[in-house]
């Protein structure tokens, strides 16, 4: 049985719950992708941010409502040095220094929210040689998995290495409180396993980047 299926519905094994902590010290970026008035997925973004911080990592949460990027006209790399709008410069700096990404997506008509796609498409080289974990959510029972599969192909195209596991969250309003607190410990166990996998890839790729990359 694949790891993704286990995360979707099966309790983690004893071995995996033993991986619930690590050495800390990574820089992670949680990218959230909804700007709807009554959005619920911000709960999932807060949950993952808190879980990463509890492991001792530095975490930045990117919220498109706060970032206010324009609809894509030119990517960051198409601007002359120092000429990109300040929000793009800030994000580029965060991304260049990141060791890992977590993307939190809803499912709109079997695909990604437009705000998330717009956030992703402004950048390219800043993502290279870094791992990404995918968290999806929905108000129904399937947890946004169709959007998660779509997102995996998009992230691969911009140079991110998606980890094998994904973390779908069903009935997100019941599963998580407004501040991201889970309604039962099963979500904490699933997140522990998911983040242990992400951090393993992040440390491996960070060490590999320090030795040099195939191209820039």
Descriptive notes:
Helix 6 (114-121) links the parallel strand 3 and strand 4. It is built from nine helices and five strands. Mean pLDDT is 90; it is low at 1-21. The longest helix has 26 residues, at 185-210. It has one domain (26-210): Flavodoxin domain (Rossmann fold). With 216 residues, it is an alpha/beta fold. A five-stranded parallel beta sheet has the order 2-1-3-4-5, sandwiched between helices. It is globular. The relative contact order is 0.19.
List keywords for this structure.
216 residues, alpha/beta, Rossmann fold, 5-stranded parallel beta sheet, 9 helices, 5 strands
- Sheet bearing the most strands, described? 5 strands, parallel
What is the annotated CATH architecture?
Answer: 3-Layer(aba) Sandwich
Order of helices and strands: HHEHEHHEHEHEHH
CATH homologous superfamily title = Flavodoxin domain
Residues in helix, %:
40-55%
Order of strands across the widest beta sheet? 2-1-3-4-5
CATH domain class name: Alpha Beta
Q: How many individual β-strands?
A: 5
Strand content: 15-25%
Rg over alpha carbons: 17 Å
Intertermini distance:
37 Å
**Shape assignment:** globular
The structure class reads alpha/beta
How many domains comprise the coordinates?
A: 1
Q: Which segments are poorly predicted (pLDDT under 50) over 5 or more consecutive residues?
A: 1-21
Count the helices. How many? 9
